Fold:
Amino acid sequence: MHKDKFVFAQLVAFLDRNKFNYIVHKYDGDKYVKHLTCWNQLLALMFGQLSNRESLRDLIIALEAHNSKCYHLGMGRNVSRSSLARANQDRDHRIFEEYAYHLMNEARQKRVMDIFKLDGDVFAFDSTTIDLCLAVFWWAKFRRTKGGIKVHTLYDLETQIPAFFHITDAAVHDSKAMKEIPYESGSYYIFDRAYNNFKMLYRIHQIGAYFVVRAKKNLQYKSIKWKRRLQKNVLSDATIELTGFYPKQYYPEPLRWVRYWDEEQEREFVFLTNAMHISSHLVAELYKNRWQIELFFKWLKQHLKIKKFWGTTENAVRIQIYAAICAYCLVAIVQHDMKLDRSTYEILQILSISLTDKTHLRDLFDKTKFQNDKERFRPNDPSLFDY
Structure:
């Protein structure tokens, strides 16, 4: 059935176009548009992400090289640099944001796992800063001579798919983004030290969700209860009350305080949590898995284009980030639906040189072989999706 279809067209078949059309209609995205529709724009951007294009000019050159294939690739007529740049600058970025959320939800539902054996979902929240040239990206002022943006991400540790993201100026403190998170009762939220915002942590507690956060060294508290029998590497497990002037007002209830010795790193960690019902080892294990979000950021910057932008306006930057997330989720969906025994690194490497081939996806992934294990499992690449 797919023998005469291009690889990219087969990938596009995994996308829900009806849902995208609904979102476009909601924001009048194609109003007065004759040629480059929002759908064509999305596919052109995803083609650029998957083929690892360095710039907008680079993307257009690649598309022009396959001029006769554009229609069959799903991009309609020829895509010009000026029309794509104008679309990235002027189209409502919420169209692509909502579709990115749709794909994230679809990918998460397909990849449901119960790694931690807890009743709720387990999320890590963190941010990554993307440096920008202030002379070009004037709207993204970070420091006096430097520009940048932050992508705050809520990452599902069990499905390895983002559940929420929030883009701000790089100057915004990490903890300020906590109020944007759509918290769910019964879920677990893992934070680093930058998120010792007790007003927001108490909000999590009040809605019936749980948190694990690494404590700051200058935390003021008093212990009111201790556990005598401790698990291996657990130095202390106590119930405490905050005594700092503002913290005790923002979080007036008892907290759990866990000191843990990590043998691998040979260092001590101190955690605060409202999850009184789980073991101290699980508290440490949940925080240890927070590093998956760091791997996700590293992987995203290495393998998809969110460090070099194809437009200079805030709208264009946002659309490119959303297109990168769409590409990431598409790979996850394809990997799940086709039951591929390959890492995302391998899938992207294969796709990057095969998008305009006429080969069935199954044949493409089955026939492509890596020369040796060193190339197949590069030590510097995070192994996301390697189940």
In short: The longest strand covers residues 122-132. Residues 7-92+323-376 form one domain. The radius of gyration is 23 Å. Confidence is low (pLDDT under 50) at residues 371-387.
